[in-house]
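W.,

You were right to be curious about this one. When I first looked at the sequence I had no strong expectations either way, so I just let the prediction run and decided to look at it fresh. Below is the sequence, 353 residues in total, followed by the output.
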Amino acid sequence: MSETGAPNAQASAVRPKKPLPAFDRRLLFPMNAAELMDRVFDVYKVSFWPQVGISLLMGIITSMILFVGAIILSIAGGVIGVAAYQLSGGVSAGIILGVSVGVPFAFLAAYYVALTNSGGMILARQAYYQERPSVDSAFGGAMRSSFRVSLAVLAQIAALIPIIALCVFLLYQWLNPTGFFTSGFWLNMSVYNMNPTAFALSVIGLVIAVGFAAMLATNPFACAVACALYEKRVFFGALARSVRLVRGDFWRIFGVRLLGWVVVSVISYSVTAVFSLTVSAINLVSKSALPDSSGVVPAVAMIEIVVSLVMSVLLGPISKILNSLIYFNQRVKKEGLDLEIGIEKMMSDLPKQ
């Protein structure tokens, strides 16, 4: 009020804040695998449009970064490769080229992972804490933390190099006696003598085995990106923190991550299967109804690209939300994060003095 008793114009212009949402008591209890997956989709529903927006925004930015980075690395690789070959010969040139291009590429890949994950995980944290998800704050937080999260990703790569080298060595020892790595093995191999079903099952089995092994190897670091993002842990500090959080629940967390991957894969492949059947029907109808159906093929290819991009934008946030909730759930179980959240919520509900 002013001295004359009239309402203050500045005070009347301030809009009253919306009341805070009712406190979700599920935050006060650790979640099992089924509850965790339910909570993932609850968080996704609350933050759906911000998640889609940040996914599109980060997708555009990372695509531009990868495009420019690929051009620079290609030019630099050609110059370095020619110079190294002239100076030191073939083998040494290959090593120099591999290091000079591989190291920057690893940094570029780590930065890509950091940008594509950080924004969605910040939105997941806001929704988990029952705050209003904001694309602006998620984008700003992702950009500010991108270097720190990139270091955590690089630390994971460095930690996995011995495991990858061991797997490659074992694979070589297993396949080398069969002559798999010789040209004669492939020249004598006829496509017509191969069983297509057996070949397809072998390829599918190999892909599943590699994916299973990769998920198993990275499971101790399931919370590393979250630790770098939420706790500002750097490099191997994020990995060590993740190992401590995962310890004692290794197989449960592995099962949850595997379940999340299966759910996303089933949804993605179901849509892809429906689209493939539709494309097949369109091709069949166009060939029988149109004398010249050459224009249909590019249109179908373009639609296929658009569908894959849309599925990536819609399904990508699920893994980010899952990783965030695994981190929060482990902190609830081991460190009383539930009490911290409850106290903060109670303090925020107290009337202001």
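Here's what jumped out at me. DSSP finds twelve helices and no strands in the chain. And, maybe more interesting for your project: Residues 30-337 form one domain.

Coffee later to discuss?

I.
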